[in-house]
Amino acid sequence: MSEYSEHDVHRQVTELEGKSATAARLFDVRRIIGGLFSLYGVIVTIAGITASEADLDKAEGININLWTGLGMLALGLFFLGWLRLRPLKQGVVPREEPQEGLREELPEE
């Protein structure tokens, strides 16, 4: 006989599902990509704003760091906005509660 009741097992499964959903939201790829592109976009944009004339002459007068940084920043903000507008939905599948007397028996090995 098991020392855990069916209610205890159901409660533990529910808690684990909640923790799993929290971890999925935390490690959503859109959050990681958006955060990194935004961070690097800010850094490269600052490098573009503070570019010297020698740097601009190397790139034939185009401020590559500025334009690349602004593009990265826009892409990062796009991903973060997408995450905010379309958050992950909790994928809980409704379960049927087992009825008394209709439990499936596991085959014995």
Overall helicity: 55-70%
Biggest β-sheet, characterized?
Answer: none
Total DSSP E strands: 0
Low-confidence stretches: none
N-end to C-end Cα span: 18 Å
Total helix count? 4
Task: Using the CA coordinates, give the radius of gyration.
Answer: 26 Å
H/E element sequence: HHHH
Structural class: mainly alpha
Shape: rod-shaped
Strand proportion, as a percent range, falls in under 5%
Mean of all residue-level pLDDT scores: 79
Quick summary:
The protein has 109 residues and is mainly α.
Walkthrough of the structure:
The protein is mainly alpha-helical and 109 residues long. It contains four helices and no strands. It has helices spanning 6-26, 29-49, 53-58, 64-85. The longest helix has 22 residues, at 64-85. It is rod-shaped, with a radius of gyration of 26 Å. The two termini are 18 Å apart.
